[in-house]
C-alpha cells in the first residue's frame, strides 16, 4: 500500500536529456511507483516535452528520499510551497532533516518568490537570510545557533546540468576516461577555452600536485602565470616545497631537473628548503631578501595571485604559508572559488583535486589531467561529474598547452 | 683534485648484506673516490667481514653528503669524535647543517659515550639533552630557541637494517610487489606474527582506509578488536564517518552492507551520521546515550583503544573526534607509536599509511595491504622500506586473517 | 534537406529501459532527424509503451547507419521486407554491405517469416541457408564462394538486452567497476547462479590465466572440476604449462607453491615441464604412463572436459595440445561455446577473456574476476557488455567460491 | 653434508657491479655453501677484482642449479672442460638436461676453444655444429632428431651485462619505473641514440600497439619511417587494421581522428577495412590499385620495410598479411631481429612487446613506452631486464620524438 504521494512536474528536453527515464528509474529503485497524469512529447529534436507525474511511496520517508532525488533532475513539486526551515539550536549542528545541496544551480521559494542560492557547493546546507531575502550555502561546522536552515524538499528547485549537443566542447573527453584518445586535439580545445575564459574576464584556477615539479613542468606553469592564464593556485605542502627546492637547489625529490639525474641524498633538500624559508620567516620575506627568485611560488606571489596551500597529515615542516588547520584551509579555498573562478585545471593531484571538486559549483569548467585513470574516475564518482578527464602525461600536457597558448 | 677526506670503518655481514658494494656505489655516484686501506673477507657465510676505507672528495660539501649516506649503511668515522651541535636561535628553525634522521636505530656520541637516540623517525632532527645525557628526535616545527641540535656527521652511528636470511618471515613478500603470489600463505604468516607480537606484550597498530567499511569488512576489524589484536587505530574522517554511518543506518557510501545494494541518495547518510554525533556532542556521549552500539569505533572506545583520526582537506563535517590541525594530529600519532607499537597493519589507506610510515621506526613490522600495487610501492619509495606489501583484496584478506587467528 | 527516410517501430519497456532516449540520441548524433508519428506511454511501471518514429537523414548512407543502430535497440522497420542478401564471389571476402552482427538474439525475415539466427556472436556475418530455411553466423574468413550473406538492414530484428529490475542478480556488480564493494555477497551470488545453471543442465565455462596457478589457486579449480562445476576450460600455453609444472615439480614461475618461496632458477621448470610432456608425446600419454597425476589439466582430461588452449606469440614450447593457429583455435572455441555454455567465469585472464568475450552470445552469464580494474573495463568496452566485473583477488575469490559451493 | 663441489672463478668489476654479493646470495639461497679460496679486491674504482670460490652443495642436482646461475653472473668453472652435449632422439624434444639460455652474450668451449653462440635469445637451447665449429640457439620445437644439444654446465661462459657508470645514457630511466620523472630529457636522449644507431648503420625496430593509431599518433610513426628511423615493425592484427581503417575511412575504433569525435557504429569500419583489403587480395595489391595511399603500412610497404604481424586469438578477420600460426610468426620475428636490429622501441603494446622481448639479445637497446607502469614492469619481470621504461603518453612521446629528430 502506497499511502504517501506528491505530484511533480518535469519540463524541457526531458526525454532527449534522459531526464524522464532517470526519474522513473529513481522512483522505482527507491520502492515507489508513479502515474503519468499528463505528458506531451516534443515531436522533433527542437521541441520540449512536459510530464506531470504522481509519485506514490509506501511511507513519508521514502517519498522524501524520492522527491529529493527527483529535484536534482529538475522536478518541481506541483503545489509549490515556500521552503520550510528550522532554526539551529546548537553551533555546528544542523536540524536533522536539513536539505543537503548538490553543486547544481539551485533556487528556493521565499514568500512565493524563487531566489537563487548563493555560494552553491555540494553536501552542505542552505541558510535563509529573511531580512535581505537571500539564501546561501553553509557547511555544517559553520552554522550557528539561531541560523535558519532549509529542511525537507518543499520550495526547492534544482536546474539540471545539460550538455548542449552541438557545441559542447568537452563532449569528446567526457564520454569516457581513456588514454586511447587523440589528446593533442583535446589540449588545443582546452587552450581555446582558457583564452575565451580570460577574454570575458573569468578566472582560471590551477590545482597542482608535486609531480608537476618532479617532472620539470614547473617552468610551464610559471610561464602560464606570466602570460596571465593563472588567477589562483591550490595545492599542498609538497608542491610549494618542491617548487622552492627547485628554485633554491635545482632539484625536486632528489632529482636534478636540468640533467634528470637522481641525486641520492638530495631528498634532504626539501627539508633544507623548508628550513631556509622558515629561517627568513615567510615566502614574501624570502622574495624580498632575494633568496627566492623564480618558480611557481615566486611568480604567483609577485603578482598577488592567491595560493591556498592546505597541509596534510603526511607533511614535513611545513613550509611557511601552508595552512595546518583543515577548516581554515577549506574556508580560504571557498573564498577564492566564489571570487570569479570560471575554469579549473587539476593536474597530477588527487587529494587536493577531490577537495576542490567538493567545493566547485557544477558550472565551473573543470579539467582533470592525470596519467592515472583512477584519479579521473574518482573525482567523477565523488560528485564532480562536470569534470572532463584527460589521461595523459602532465609534463607533456603542460608543454603542449603553453606552446598552443603562445600562438 | 680530491682535497677532502675521511676514513670510515664497516664491519659485519657487509658483503653478504650488500653493504660494501652499496657503500662504493654511494661514494662514486656522489663524485668521490676511495682506497680500501684494509679488508678482511669472511670465508664462509657465518663469518663477518671488515673494511677500512679512505674516502676522498673534491670538496667538504660533497664529503659531507657522502659520509652522511655511508652512515646510513653503518659506516663509522674512524676518528670517532663526539657529535657536534648548534643552538636553535629561532623557534621552528633548525641550524642550517642539521643532521636529518633515518628511521633506523641511531646512536650519538656524547662525552665519548654512545647513547641511543629516542623516538627515532625519519626526516627529523636530533636534540641533545646534556643534563640527562640523552638524545631524542624532534620535528622541525617543534624546536625551540635554545635547543641543542646535532649538525654535521661526527659522532653518529646508524645500525643498518639487515634481514635475517634463514628466519625472515616477511622475506617472501618483500622480494617484490605482485598480485601473482600465494597470498593465503602470507596471511597465515601475518597471523602468526600477530600472535607472537601479542604474546610478548607488543602492541599492534591498524591504519585503516574507508574501503574497509565500504566492503563490509568493518565486522572483521571489530572482531580483531574484541579478540585483542588491535591496540591502536589511525585513520581519517572517512573511516570513522562510514563506520558510524554503517552502525546507525546500515549503509556505507550509499551501499546497504547487508544486501550489497546501491542505495542512491544514501550518500547523504554520512552527513546525517556526522550531524547525529555532533548533535549529542561526541562519540563517547553517543555510546553513553545508546545511540552508537556497534562497529569499529564503538569497540575501540569501550576498550580505551586510542583512535587518532587526522582530518584532510577533502573532509565533510568533520565528525567529532577528528583532528583538524595536522600538527596536533601528527603529535598524537607520535605519542601512540612511541608507546609500544611493534607491528603495524595498513589496510586500504594511502594518505594515512604514508603519514604513519613517516613516523614509524624501521624496527616496527609493517604490512601494507591494498588491491592497488601503486600504494604499496609508494610507501617504500618514501622511505618506509621495511613495509611488506600484499597486493590483495582487503575484505577477503581480513576475513581470512580473522579465521586464521581464531584457530 | 533530408531526402532519405524510413519508419520504425519500438515497443515494450522502451522508456523504462532507456531505449527511446537512446534511439533519439542515435538519430541525432548521426545527423538525422525524426518525427514521432504515434506514441503511447505506459502509465505505470508494468505497462509497456509504443512509438512509431519517422527517421529522416540527408542521404541513404547515413540512413543506413542510423537504421542499423536502431535495430540494435530493437527497432523494426514498419514495412518489414525480407532480408536482402548477396552472394559471396571470393572465398573469405564478404559483400561490401554485409550486415555485421551484435551478440544479441537476432532474427531475420525469410519468405515473410521471422527465424532465429543460430550461433550468434558479435562482429560476424549472417549466412542464409534457403534450403533448410535457416540462418547462422559466419566469420569473414570462413565464407565461401556461393554463400548467401545478409546485407543492408531490411528484415532484421534484434532483441535488445534488458536487465530485469527486480530479480537481476548481477545488478549490484554491473553498476560500476570498483574494488570498494562487498565482495563476499557477490561471491555467494555467483555460487548460487552456478548451482542453478548446473541444476538445469547448463554448462559452465572457465577462462583461466596463469596467475590462477602462480597464486596457488589451481587446487580450487581442480576441486570445482571434481565437484562438477566446470564443463569447459579456455586458456593458453601459460595456464597449462604452469599447471603441469606445479604437478610435476611443485613450482609455478619459480615459486614453491607449498612454501611460497621464490626458487630462483626455477623459472626453467616451465621449460622442463613442456619438454617432459613433449617427450612422452601428449598430455593423454603423460596421464597414461603415470607422469601427470594431478592438477587442473589432469582433472579435466580424465573427465573428458574440453580444454581449448590457444597459443600466443609470446609462448615458449609450446606444450602439446596448445593450438598454434589462431583460426583453428577460434573455431574450436566456437564449437565448445555453442554446445550448451550458459555461464562463463573469466579469472585473471585478459587476452583469452577478450577473445572469449568476442565469441559469447550476450545471453551467457559472464563474470570477470581480476585484481586489475582495467581488465574488467576493457572487456565491456569491446562489446561484452553483459560481463559482470568483480575486482578482487583471484586466489581468495576461488577459495571463497569453493567453500560456498561445498555448503 | 655437502658432498658435491666445484671451483669457479669470477673476475672484473665484481664488487662494484654487485656480482660477488649476488653470487654468494645465489649459493646460499640454493642451500649451498662456499669458501673463498683466493680473493684480490681492487683498491680503487678503476681496479678490477678477482675471486676463486669453492662451491659446495648437498647433492649434484643442487650444485647444477647453483653453477648454472653463477654462470649467468660470469662465473667460469676452474677446470674448463668442453661443453657436454647429447643427441636429440625425437623431433621437438630436447635432452632432459638441456642448457637453457639467457639473452646475454654466451660462449661455449669446443675442442678447447671458446666460440660465441649465434642468434642468442633467452629460454632456448644451444645446438652445436661440429663440422663448422659453430654454435647457435634453437627453440625447442625446432630441434630435429640427430641435433647435438648442449647439456649441463660445463664449457659455458656467459658475459654478464654491466652498465657503464659514467656514460650510461639510459641510466636515469632504468633506476625505476615512474611517471614522476623529467620525460623531455629522456625523449631527447632516445632521439640522440636513434641518430647514433642510424649513423653507424644499426637498424631500429618498432613494436607498436593499436593505441598508437587510436590516439592519432600514426602520423608520427609514418614520419619516422619517411625520415629513415624505422627499419622493422612488429605488431598484430589490430595495428595494421586500424592503420588501414584510418587511411581508408579516417577513423580508428570509431573515432574520427581529425575531429576526435566518437562515431558510434564506426566500430564496424575496422571490419570494412579488413574486408576491403581481402577483396583486392593483399596490402601490396591495395597499394598497387591505389586503394591504400597513406599510413604506417603504406609507408613501410613502399620502402620494403619488414612488418611482421603476429595474430592473436582475439582477432577479427584477419587482415591479409597477418600470420595466424604463432610458430611461423615467431620464426619471422627471429629472422628480422637477427638481421641487424640494434635498438627497439616498444610503444603501447603489451603482448607483442613481451613476445619481442623474449627474442631480443640483451645487447639491443630497448625502450618501452607505455602510459601504464605495469606493462613496463612486466617486461622486466620476464627477463628483458635491459629494457628502459618510460611511463608516458605514447601520442605526446611520439610527437616530441619526431620534433626532436627533425632538428
Descriptive keywords:
alpha/beta; homotetramer; 407 residues; 5-stranded mixed β-sheet; 19 strands
Helical region count of chain A?
14
Helix content of chain A: 25-40%
Kindly state the number of beta strands of chain A: 19
User: Structural class given helices, strands, pairing of chain A?
Assistant: alpha/beta
Assembly state of the chains shown: homotetramer
Overall pLDDT score of chain A:
88
CA(first)-CA(last) distance of chain A: 67 Å
- Strand percentage of chain A: 15-25%
What integer value in Å does the Rg of chain A equal? 24 Å
Overall, the morphology of chain A is: elongated
> Biggest β-sheet of chain A, characterized?
6 strands, parallel
Poorly predicted segments of chain A: 164-176
Specify which chain pair forms the largest interface: A-B, 53 and 53 residues
Describe this structure in words.
The structure is a homotetramer of 407-residue chains. Chain A has 407 residues and is α/β, with parallel strands linked by helices. In chain A, 34% of the residues lie in helices and 23% in strands. In chain A, the strands form five sheets. A six-stranded parallel beta sheet of chain A has the order 16-13-12-17-18-19, sandwiched between helices. Chain A has a five-stranded mixed beta sheet with strand order 8-9-7-6-11, with no helix packed on it. The longest helix of chain A is centred in the middle third of the chain and has 17 residues, at 183-199. Residues 164-176 of chain A have low confidence and may be disordered.
